[in-house]
Amino acid sequence: MAMNKHFRVAGSLAERLEENGVRVPAVLRRAGLSPDLFASGRVLLTTQELFAFWHAIGEVSEDPAIALKLGTERQAQRFHPSGIAALASETFGAAMKHLSRYKQLTCPEEIIEDVAGGEWSIRFRWTEAPDVEPLVLVEYCFAWLQTLSRHGTGTKLSPKRLEMLQPRKHVRELERHFGCEIVSNASRNAMIFLEEDAATPFLTRNAELLDLLAPQLEEQLRQSRQESDAGGFVNLVRDAIQQRLTGQRPAMEDVARALHVSTRTLQRRLQESGSSYQRVLDEARHELARYYLGNSVLELNEAAYLLGYEDANSFVRAFRGWEGVPPGHWRESQRARLAN
């Protein structure tokens, strides 16, 4: 079940629209949305508003391939946090599991995967869709997925075919972009890969998520520990955990492997320092939670996802235990303090 009834639209999408010659005020006017929508820096839309927004993009833009341009990104630094976390996955298939869990936590949308006859199909479903999803939105999702797969694998991985409910006039441009057959008037909107493509390794699996999300973060964390007397090994373990808090709870075995010690040695050395793996994990999450809530525009659900919690409620309970107040209240008090 989705923990949120809204979609967060990144401000960078408005920048991309302008870069591609699409006037954002015209899009907002056509969609019946507030002209100040992107002024707040926090854009939340219902499914109906999201569909209106994407319908308007297709109507205002004179470029039939606008969705392909918006969904193609060459700089990982400009990826959404969910995409950055997905890049840290071991394989393409694991990345899709990350994204699916992100959707479940943060918005009324699902990623549906099916494996049959040697094929792996991926489709997006908007659970509160008022009508058929906009053509432009479907193409954008597929283009973004291709961007992610090619960034991660370091190859020009292409689907076997794209199935689309509605016919397109720019089929040849779609075929060139995706490098595959386009099947129109299909029974669904789906991206079909070979089943074996799911096992394709991601070369970015060791990418440091924190460096991409916030280049200044590691230095801030280091400075905050200068007075720490917990010992160097505890800090090493905390660093390793934080680098692996990529949308899932890092296993002790993975952290031990990263530090080139056995799991038993990891436990023993932490115990000698008066700590434990669970305690260091909690400290790592607490430290990152404070950073995410105090220095970024991440929604609470997105922070919960990145910190490896199964749902937003678990994150709220943990944060209340650390700070004595829910994360939303803590964030507001921090903003109020900085404003004075």
TrEMBL record:
| Protein's recorded name | AraC-type DNA-binding protein
Read off the lineage from the record.
Answer: Bacteria, Pseudomonadati, Acidobacteriota, Terriglobia, Terriglobales
Highest taxon in the source lineage: Bacteria
Q: Which InterPro entries match?
A: AraC-type_N (IPR032687), Homeodomain-like_sf (IPR009057), HTH_AraC (IPR018060)
**Keywords from the named record:** DNA-binding, Transcription, Transcription regulation
What GO terms fall under cellular component here? cytosol
Q: Which residue intervals define the domain HTH araC/xylS-type in the entry? A: 235-333
* PROSITE patterns in alphabetical order: HTH_ARAC_FAMILY_2
Q: Does the keyword Lipoprotein apply?
A: no
Q: Name one GO molecular function term.
A: DNA-binding transcription factor activity
Protein species of origin: Bryocella elongata
